[in-house]
Specification:
coiled coil; single chain; 3-stranded antiparallel β-sheet; alpha+beta
Length: 115
């Protein structure tokens, strides 16, 4: 049984009753006996067995991780923007210093010519 298959069972969030399959048949808790998923619980009905019982927990964990990664990505973008702003400020200062060096060099030349 593959965990990537579409879910055919869903839990009714309004009550704590037994989950019902999409085909309106009551879903039952079963256990896999495959080598890949030994003793893994899944919800199934007489017509179709596709939803792992722990799939919602895994999906919630994946969603949390996705949100955390998105937040960290946004933080990295902000940091990159800050670094780019600093680079621009530093380049402006470098340009100012270079202009002052050129001015000082020309003043120094004039002084040397007068002597």
């Amino acid at each position: 049984m593959s965990s990537s298959l579409m879910s055919s069972a869903s839990v009714d969030n309004r009550t704590l009753s037994t989950p019902v399959c999409l085909c309106e048949v009551e879903a039952t808790l079963k256990y896999s006996n495959s080598r890949r998923n030994p003793c893994r619980a899944f919800l199934g009905c007489r017509k179709y067995n596709t939803e792992w019982a722990d799939s919602q927990d895994k999906e919630q964990n994946l969603l949390k991780r996705k949100n955390e990664l998105l937040r960290k990505g946004a933080d990295l973008v902000k940091m990159l923007e800050d670094i780019e702003k600093r680079e621009i400020q530093l380049q402006k200062k470098v340009n100012e210093i270079e202009k002052k060096e050129i001015l000082l060099a020309s003043i120094n030349e004039e002084i040397m010519k007068k002597e």
